[in-house]
Amino acid sequence: MKHELLSIGEVSRMKGVSPKSLRYYEQLGILTPAHVDPQSGYRYYAMNQMIVVDVIVTCIELGIPLKSLAGYVGESGALDIASLLAQGRTKALENLRRARLSLAQIDGYLEEANEQERLRGGAEPYLRSVANRCILYAPWTEPGFDAKRYLFLTTRLYESAESAGAMPLYQWGMARSPRAEGARWCVFVEAAIEDDAFAEKISAQGGRTGIRPIEGADIFIARIPAGAYRGTRIREAGFEPCFRSVFEQAERLEGAIVAAKVWEAEIHPADYVVELLERQ
């Protein structure tokens, strides 16, 4: 019978798993050798145990804690592979969802970085086209700009993202409705929404919908409309002076406004640059 078994070294080479790891799986009770030589202590495994090794490796790749696998070992000592793979499938789908949102985050940053590179050094004001942007936002109720309140609301927006099924993107700042609609300000974080049906619901409800409130702030999801925007850049030493300048310049503007942080490698860390866009 022994000639039908695989030594721990053979399993290691076949599956790319170190002998140390195989011994650890044994300690956890999730992979018991088919035979242990009573004199040498050498461990041997049956061919039908190789699928167990594959499943364990898959769980590791999915980020499932190894110690949790012990809960899938039955009274006979065998691993309940079907139940474990069902959990693995759920985990894989969640990882896939997060990967899609992360890809949207990366693509959004690269797209905006390329646009800012195109605009850098050109004449101001300039015209640029802005695509539909989905945002998480919190209404701004202060009479002017207050850095502490801004930081508080921005933190709450990031905290609320997961419950909204959203991935925060790299753009954040403040936006204002047209003066004819009350010139109401908000703090926003651009976000990718995976659920297309939910995105359609936003449009059906006039462009915004509320989500689960976070303590100290009402949080909503909305869309910044696509179109042509007139842009300028405001640069100050620090984000508070920068947004104070945004508020001052906004007093002279009538249309919808988006004021978003601009990322540039050449910007000194003490400086802050905001792109002020007015919809045309």
In short:
The chain is built from 7 helices and 12 strands. The chain is an alpha+beta fold and 280 residues long. The protein has a 9-stranded antiparallel sheet.
What does this structure look like?
This protein has 280 residues and is an alpha+beta fold. The protein folds into 2 domains: 2-79, Orthogonal Bundle (Multidrug-efflux Transporter Regulator, Chain: A, Domain 2); 108-279, Regulatory factor, effector binding domain (Multidrug-efflux Transporter 1 Regulator Bmrr, Chain A, Alpha-Beta Barrel). Helices cover 38% and strands 25% of the residues. The protein has 7 helices and 12 strands. The chain has helices spanning 8-15, 19-28, 50-62, 81-119, 147-160, 196-204, 239-250; strands spanning 6-7, 35-36, 43-45, 126-130, 133-139, 166-176, 185-193, 208-210, 220-224, 227-236, 257-261, 272-279. The strands form 2 sheets. The chain has a 9-stranded antiparallel beta sheet. It has a 3-stranded antiparallel beta sheet with strand order 1-3-2. A hairpin with a 6-residue loop joins strand 2 and strand 3 (43-45). 26% of the residues are buried. This is HTH merR-type domain-containing protein.
